[in-house]
Amino acid sequence: MTTSPLATDPDGGLPRLLHIMARLRDPVSGCPWDIVQDFASIAPYTIEEAHEVADAIARAAWDELPGELGDLLLQVVYHAQMAAEAGYFGFDDVVRAISDKMVARHPHVFGTESRDKSAEQQTADWERIKAAERGPAGVLDGVALGLPALTRALKLQKRAARVGFDWPSTDQVLDKIVEEAHELVEARDSLTAVELAEEYGDLLFVMTNLGRHLQLDPEACLRAANTKFTRRFKRIEEVLHARGKTPADSDLTEMDALWDQAKAEEKSG
Prior knowledge:
With 269 residues, this protein is an all-alpha fold. It starts with 12 loop residues before the first helix and ends with a helix. It is built from twelve helices and no strands.
């Protein structure tokens, strides 16, 4: 099968992408790798691409963002193509579903409700409409299992807090963190590996709760901490390289001093 004009049309827009995806999945003339994929095999790429979009935004890499958003859009098109092949739904159904949802959840824009409200009030209204859409479901139902663990913990806690299951102040959360940390330290030599993991998970869950009380996104905070750690450790490697050494040739005392030096350079710079 020859290349179609639409596949190479730079102004083909979304129809071009849909056409390309269909060609890739063609059982006769498509790509062997694309043909054998299914929802489960593609899902990890979907998650990965979403994180790469977030990473580009965090780095303010605006020149990279179009490409990253394109990669994420491809994931939606990929799933829709596989669904169409199986007779589940098509891409138009995906567009219709999100369009209907946006209109229904913004009655102050597309309906008769007043726009005279804060962003916080709109968030509360959004959740109220979502709850009505879910119907008589449990408070925690619908929080996706596939979310990153910190994000899912945050969503579970927010759901519980809406019905009053929450500590009233940050001080009580801090007290619980101290309690959980002490329990973990005191019992680390007597617990089984499974029990130790459970206690550590409890501590992470409470730390997430602290972020929520401080109005911080724990996933974003940890991502920023990862970036900071990477940046400072690379600086350690740079200095060691200038000394003709690698981290493996160094020791904790030297590297800890270089870490402090990297911190000081960042603050003075």
